[in-house]
Amino acid sequence: LAGGTAIPELRDKNALEPVPPLLIRPEITDDKAWREGFDGGFLEKDKRWGYAVSMDLSGDIYINTDVVKQEEVRTVQDLLAPKWKGQLHFTDIRSGYTSVLATGIRLKYGESILRRLFVEQEPVYSRDNRLVTENMVRGKYPIATGVVPGILQEFLDRGLGKNLKSVFLTDPTIGNLATPILRMRNPPHPNAAKLFINWFLTKQGQTALSQSTGINSRRLDVSPASPSRYPEPGKPLGWIYGNEEAVEEAFKTQKLVIDWLGG
User: Fold this and answer.
1) pLDDT per position as a tens digit, 134-175
2) Among 259, 232, 253, 230, which Cα is nearest to 57's?
3) Distances in Å between the alpha carbon of 259 and those of 57, 115, 119?
């Protein structure tokens, strides 16, 4: 299992073998079993190398409920309010995480609103997710992106950070196509690899993955492990991040911000 951005490099270095030839169980390739159909899980154009099994809502922000009411920040326009100028704490778009939210905003509203939010609102940037999380717990900023649930849980276990809440903007609604399984070239036990993937992509395998990690499977017969992050089936998403085309769009967003802010 690896991040989708690793696939092009591994593929180009001849480190992968195609996934589809391993799949022998009909219940795996049944379109009705998967959100967006079975082929919707492939992350590259030729549908061979990496198969994503999870789909979660993405692009959430965190608010300090001691300062911010949830209804105050439901849309991108809300974040542009003068009261939040200099008060937004973002993980750096130029290094990854927030680029997904930023790209969804750019594709829906264009470059001008992107510049207003990520430049003219004078957000404070950091490339350290732990620092962002700690700053929010300490109350230094009212709104942030990049608060990591696993890191936040460390504070919650100590009785801190209970005033932080994750909020998904209603515009744009972003899905995250993730957790791809890859087939590495020359595995030590080819039959074991085949056996594993033909279990892993079943209802039983995906249930085990979902329950142990908290991610939401793309399989429609697997109950969501994190309902608040589960995209409602049948409800269209404004943008889905994860495949090759989406990653290219995120890179375009990063380039724009680098041009505006410098490297």
Assistant:
1) 999 999 999 999 998 889 999 999 999 999 999 999 888 999
2) 230
3) 29, 11, 11
What whole-number distance in Å separates Cα of residue 139 and Cα of residue 258?
29
Element (H, E) at 50: strand 50-58
Q: For the beta carbon of residue 65, count every other beta carbon within 10 angstroms.
A: 14
Whole-model pTM: value is 0.84
Angle between helices 190-200 and 203-213 (to 10 degrees): 80
Q: Which residues neighbour 220 within 8 Å (Cβ) at sequence distance 6 or greater?
A: 32, 33, 34, 35, 233
Q: Report strand pairing: 239-241 vs 60-64.
A: unpaired
The helix/strand/coil state of 68 is: coil
d(C-alpha 233, C-alpha 154), whole Å: 32
Transcribe 176-210 into DSSP letters. EEEEEEEEESS-S-HHHHHHHHHHHTSHHHHHHHH
